[in-house]
């Protein structure tokens, strides 16, 4: 069907043969697409949100018979009603490629289609993050235009970013270097990716996650789907083990288009006082140096109204990023109930 006013059309993902291959091809070619746009990320988010009665209304965008975009769009229940978000808490911005000067008009049509689908499903809130792997000079105007046209509240979020070069570890907070020197000899640190990411490893991470959080927060199948990013080499696990092979901590790094992101971490509470989290970060930076990756994004910095826990996490991250941040644009809208 035609996307109103754009000259482009959309097709439901269920109507397209070999959905995952096409989705990933578009993500690979789109300058907008980063770690949350991959097919593996989509499958994980849908699987993890099954407990919230997730409905997948994602669609592809075509110019004639040429696929030029993918729009991740899922609805799930929350205490506030039905929300248009991923399990991760937001939707990634529509990923487009090969559209050139027609992008502005196409994005207007896409967001109109998103609103139509959201209203039909009784959605109460929509939240997007604009997260290209490399921020561009037009990001501000582009997101501002959509926000103004459709009535979104737009917020600039600061994300901690570590610049990776040969001197990165000499710039981290002084006591982090002392922790590494003192506690590194107690553990074996290793990287797991590709065929090394077995079902047993995914189960080990699920159990570690349960210990860390004190409860089971999602299904074992979701941990399998989360592990797919490392299996497909769109990331890797960093694992800290004791000499007797007891897993003390695991960190999943997403690595896509040359930019790394902290995806998920779990520490066995028994080892928390041995600064395992610091050792995992240190090993990650060494691995990124080895791979000549220039940027490592750690996630949002604590803003106004942040909880004490969020402030503490942000302070920990700033010990690695040392005040360096990048801007991620958030667009959020509370839908009218009329």
Automatic annotation (TrEMBL):
Q: Which residues form the BioF2-like acetyltransferase domain?
A: 171-301
InterPro entries for this protein: Acyl_CoA_acyltransferase, BioF2-like_GNAT_dom
Q: Which Pfam families match?
A: Acetyltransf_6
SUPFAM superfamilies referenced in this protein's UniProt entry, alphabetically: Acyl-CoA N-acyltransferases (Nat)
Entry protein name: BioF2-like acetyltransferase domain-containing protein
- The organism is Candidatus Kaiserbacteria bacterium GW2011_GWB1_52_6
User: Organism classification, top ranks?
Assistant: Bacteria, Candidatus Kaiseribacteriota
């Amino acid at each position: 069907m035609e996307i109103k006013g754009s000259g482009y059309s959309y097709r439901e993902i269920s109507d397209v043969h070999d959905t995952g291959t096409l989705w990933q091809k578009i993500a690979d070619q789109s300058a907008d697409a980063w770690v949350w746009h991959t097919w593996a990320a989509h499958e994980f988010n849908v699987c993890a949100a099954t407990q919230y009665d997730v409905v997948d209304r994602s669609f592809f965008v075509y110019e004639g018979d040429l696929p030029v975009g993918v729009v991740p769009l899922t609805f799930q229940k929350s205490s506030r009603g039905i929300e248009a978000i991923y399990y991760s808490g937001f939707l990634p911005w529509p990923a487009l490629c090969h559209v050139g000067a027609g992008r502005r008009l196409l994005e207007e049509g896409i967001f109109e289609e998103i609103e139509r689908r959201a209203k039909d499903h009784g959605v109460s809130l929509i939240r997007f993050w604009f997260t290209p792997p490399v921020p561009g000079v037009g990001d501000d105007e582009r997101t501002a235009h959509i926000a103004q046209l459709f009535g979104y509240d737009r917020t600039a979020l600061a994300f901690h970013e570590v610049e990776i070069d040969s001197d990165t570890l000499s710039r981290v907070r002084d006591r982090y270097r002392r922790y590494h020197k003192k506690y590194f000899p107690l553990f074996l640190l290793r990287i797991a990716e590709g065929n090394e990411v077995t079902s047993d490893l995914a189960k080990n991470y699920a159990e570690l996650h349960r210990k860390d959080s004190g409860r089971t927060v999602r299904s074992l199948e979701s941990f399998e789907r989360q592990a797919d990013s490392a299996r497909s080499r769109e990331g890797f696990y960093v694992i800290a083990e004791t000499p007797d092979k007891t897993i003390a901590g695991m960190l999943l790094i997403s690595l896509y288009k040359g930019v790394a992101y902290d995806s998920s971490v779990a520490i066995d509470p028994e080892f928390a006082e041995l600064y395992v989290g610091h050792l995992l970060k240190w090993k990650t930076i060494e691995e990124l140096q080895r791979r000549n990756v220039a940027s490592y994004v750690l996630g949002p910095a604590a803003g106004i109204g942040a909880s004490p826990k969020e402030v503490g996490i942000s302070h920990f991250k700033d010990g690695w990023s040392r005040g360096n941040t990048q801007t991620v644009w958030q667009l959020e809208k509370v839908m009218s109930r009329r």
